[in-house]
Design brief:
It is a single chain. The protein is mainly alpha-helical. The chain contains 7 helices and no strands. The protein has helices spanning 3-25, 32-56, 62-91, 97-152, 156-170, 181-193, 200-220. The model has no long low-confidence stretch (mean pLDDT 81).
Length: 222
């Protein structure tokens, strides 16, 4: 367990101890309403461990950890609200026990829905980011191949054309779509053909046209 996780659990434990001291040191009538609210509050404390693991358990990168912070906020907010509810029921022990049950159920239910929505949202963000990264890598790999050809080119004019092509690839739309798979494969094939082409200027012109077509289609598919 990482140091920050241990510190967080330690802080949670301290707050739990303080909560219990206040709950039983303050002279109030320990009715069924008190005990109902108390049990739900203890469960809210226990739930923080599961929420912490949900928020950061599968986080491998700094961005993934950052995306888990909203889940942690939901858990903390639910705990604070439950503590406030417990304080009310402890201060007014004459309130019916069913009111404590209903109030706590609403708090837990609302937090649960928010946690599910937040976790699904994080997974979707990570999925889209991974897809974008793959496409960005495709363009960077293509750009690197063209720049390498430019470095190996002896003709200054042809080298300049290759560098312009590399720039065109660099500023191409990084987003993609399954509908662009064929044209992207054709572009990659044309760039590979540049290594052995006798008429490189013609191939470069074809690649530029394909890039322009791809970028227009990518914009329409957004």
């Amino acid at each position: 367990m990482k140091k920050q996780n241990r510190m967080a659990y330690l802080a949670l434990g301290i707050i739990f101890i303080v909560f219990n001291v206040l709950a039983f040191a303050i002279p109030t009538e320990k009715t069924g309403t008190f005990w109902t609210a108390y049990v739900f509050t203890v469960l809210a404390f226990a739930a923080q461990i599961g929420i912490w693991r949900l928020a950061f358990g599968k986080a491998e990168t700094l961005k993934s950890k950052f995306l888990g912070i909203p889940l942690l906020h939901v858990g903390v907010a639910a705990l604070i609200i439950q503590l406030i509810a417990f304080a009310v029921f402890m201060a007014v022990p004459s309130l019916p026990a069913w009111a404590a049950v209903v109030t706590s159920a609403i708090i837990f239910g609302g937090a649960g829905v928010c946690l599910i929505a937040g976790d699904v949202g994080r997974d979707e963000v990570e999925r889209v980011e991974e897809k974008v990264n793959r496409k960005v890598f495709y363009l960077k790999d293509l750009q690197a191949d063209i720049e390498l050809l430019a470095e190996q080119e002896a003709d200054p004019e042809m080298r300049a054309e290759l560098l312009k092509l590399a720039e065109a690839v660099r500023f191409s739309d990084p987003m993609s779509n399954a509908a662009l798979a064929d044209i992207e494969a054709e572009i990659a094939g044309k760039v590979a053909a540049l290594k052995t082409a006798d008429h490189k200027a013609e191939v470069i012109a074809e690649v530029k046209l394909l890039l322009a077509e791809r970028n227009k289609k990518a914009k329409l598919l957004k």
